[in-house]
Amino acid sequence: MRVIGRGRDLSLANRVIGLAGIPARIRSSQVSPPHTGAEEVIDESVQEFLHVGIERRYPGKWKEIFPGASAIDADGHGILVVHDREHGHLAFASWVLGGVAFSPDLVRSLGKLNNGTVLGAYVLSEGQTDHWSITYAIKMRYSWVDPQSRVSAYMILDALTAVPQFVARGIEALSPQFGGSLLGSSDSETWLLMDKF
Q: Which of 19, 28, 75, 169 has the greatest number of CB atoms lying within 10 Å of its CB?
C-alpha cells in the first residue's frame, strides 16, 4: 500500500464508494507538513484518482485526449474533463446547444436556469450571427482534489453525474423556444469545446 504524508488510511472508505485501491488519509487542519517533494507524488495520485473516478462512472466510455484533458461519451453527451495541474484548473464541461440566435430573451432564460442551478453554470458564448453556443460547466480548483479523501471522491462522482443531467435540463428548457442544434461527443466537437476552457 502506498502511503503519502501523515494520517490514517481510509482505503476501506474508498472501497465503499467504489474507488478501491486508492490510499486515503485525513489531513490535520492545524499542522501543515513541511515541503518535502511529496507534492509530485500527490500530483500523480490526483491524475490517477481522476482517471479511476471517470472509469468508475463511465466504464470504457472515455479516453485521455492529451495529458490534462479527457473526453467522455455520456450517452451522446460529450463531457470534457480538464485536469490542468499547471494552471490549477479542474473543469467538467459539455455542450448544451449550438447555433442559437442571440436575444435578450435567451439571456433572461439562461439567467433563470443559472438561478436554479446549484452546481456549475450555463454559459452563452459569442459566435457569428445566429450561431451562438451554450455550454454547461462545473469549474473547480485542481488543489481541491485530495486523492486520499472520501469527500473528494464524492465531489468528482457528483460532478461527473451532474453534467449530463444539467445539459439535458438546459436542452429541455431552451431548445423549444430558441431552437439550436444538439452537439454530441465526437472528437471534433470535443476539440471545439476545449477552446472554451
A: 19
